[in-house]
Amino acid sequence: MRYSIRGPRRGPALLATSVALATVAACSGGSAAGPASAPSPGPATSASPTGAPPSPSPTPTPTRTYPLSSAPLTVPAVRAHEAARGPGWKPAPTGGVVIAANSGGLADEGKLIAGELGIPYRGAVAAGPGDVELALGGTGAPESYTLAVQGDRVRISGPDEAGVFYGTRTLKQSVKATGAMPEGTVNDRPAKPQRGLNVDTARKHFTAAWIEDRIREMGDLKLNQLGLHFSDDQGFRIESDSHPEVVSAQHLTKAEVRRILALAAERHVTVVPEIDSPGHLGAVIAAHPDLQLRSASGRAPRGAVDIANPASAKIVDDLLREYAQLFPGAYWHLGADEYVALMAKNPEATYPKLAQAAKAKYGPSARVQDLATGWLNDRAAVVRPTGKTLKAWNDGFFTGGVVNAAEDLEVEYWTGKEIGARPPVSYLSQGRKMVNLNDEYLYYVLGEPNDFAYPTGRRIYEQWTPLVVRGTTPVPAKYDAQILGARFAVWCDLANSQTPAQVAAGIQLPLAALSQKVWNPTKPTASWERFRALAERVRG
């Protein structure tokens, strides 16, 4: 785009001075200093009544030419940028953030970006020079946005509040990286609808402030899902009214959880709670030892409740109902992984009480796996009336039984090491939807036990894609639409191996790399070194 540098019109009395200034400007090639440095002369005048010859037309001031703009520097990279010629946009005291008509729901987004850019928030007024305008409207995909920079203004629009919010993240990061937002138009949208972080708060207590910092970080990276695994063998970490006896000394109060949820809503992050069962219930069993599963030899495997005991179902259902009311988000995680009874070579012989209960409930050919699948379905039935989408770990799904897992359960695939080691295609070919938590790339396990190594952002950035669900080999591309996204997971197996601050630092670059891969499906063009430097520059 080309801009004419114009000044105030001059009257006849100042004509000679005007012409002289215009001639100087033309000879010097023009000025980039702005209107005052290159005034534009007034219109030519006709001959005077005395017969003097007409004044000559002044030489026009040259226009300034800008090179074509480049895409803004952001993490994740934007998916499309239409270049243009112009100065771009920089925050200035004369500009502000305004909200377009019929877009009042964007007030939170407007106040946030105004504070981050150090310019005033002016609310629902018409946009003027130097302003950032936020607007709802259009028919784009969920979470999409358009960001247009033209005429010293920025307009960010999208079909929903999340999309506009992500547009403000692009603006914030571009200004942080280069001081400006380049001229032109960004059209952007996520490749995957579920993008996020999973945190094991059961084995290690993390404060509300620590979790809130992760939510802020996630919002800037356009990640939208925070999984909270708050119940396990080592702890139960959220205040309970129905069963306060199971709660650990270090825990989040419900007031703190509500504060976390409020911030998450502002940053368009959905919190996904998980009460893992029928395994990983050691904290519950500690308060209710009568629920403990025992083998034929009397062995009591840690964390496994006796699913033939109706009391086990009752206490878990009490907790599910309580926390389903606390967490308003669209998802619930039922767990279902690593139930020890199903890890035995012969579950029926090792746990005859469970085998007997399976036959009594599901018929003579039923096995322990059918009883476990029935448990999963029953817990799903407790939460389903809330309208939440239900999730379970992949090793809680079994084949060849008389009972099948409910069809609406999303598979959260983390391992190919379970008994039976079902590959991802085994689920996908059945039409299951899946979220990728590949333990080869996306598991940050404190203390690095069991051959785990802390994952690096570089390895995720250079080698992993959402199609790489297990190990290092991608599933066929025809299943791409069934893979709904991915989360990076922090597991606190050896809880004291790192401090919360060390965990936060350790996951920073892996989270940035993950955000790139779940937002933009194309292979990154920047080297890892350039991406890393940018990620560090735009953070915070």
Secondary-structure blueprint:
Elements: E1 2-3, H1 15-28, E2 64-65, E3 80-83, E4 97-99, H2 107-117, E5 121-123, E6 132-136, E7 145-150, E8 153-158, H3 161-178, E9 184-188, E10 194-200, H4 208-220, E11 225-231, H5 254-266, E12 270-277, H6 282-287, H7 310-326, E13 331-335, H8 347-350, H9 352-362, H10 368-383, E14 389-393, E15 410-413, H11 424-428, E16 434-436, E17 443-445, H12 457-463, E18 483-491, H13 500-519, H14 528-538
Parallel strand pairs: 4-5, 4-6, 6-8, 10-11, 10-18, 11-12, 12-13, 13-14, 14-15, 15-16, 16-18, 17-18
Antiparallel strand pairs: 1-2, 3-9, 7-8, 7-9
Give structural notes.
The protein is α/β, with parallel strands linked by helices. It has an 8-stranded parallel beta barrel with strand order 10-11-12-13-14-15-16-18, surrounded by 4 helices. Strands 3-9-7-8-6-4-5 form a 7-stranded mixed beta sheet, covered by helices on one side. β11, α5 and β12 form a beta-alpha-beta unit.
Tell me the total number of β-strands. Answer: 18
Ends apart, CA distance between termini: 33 Å
Mean pLDDT: 90
Low-confidence stretches: 1-54
Characteristic terms for this protein:
single chain, 540 residues, alpha/beta, eight-stranded parallel beta barrel, seven-stranded mixed β-sheet, 14 helices, disordered N terminus
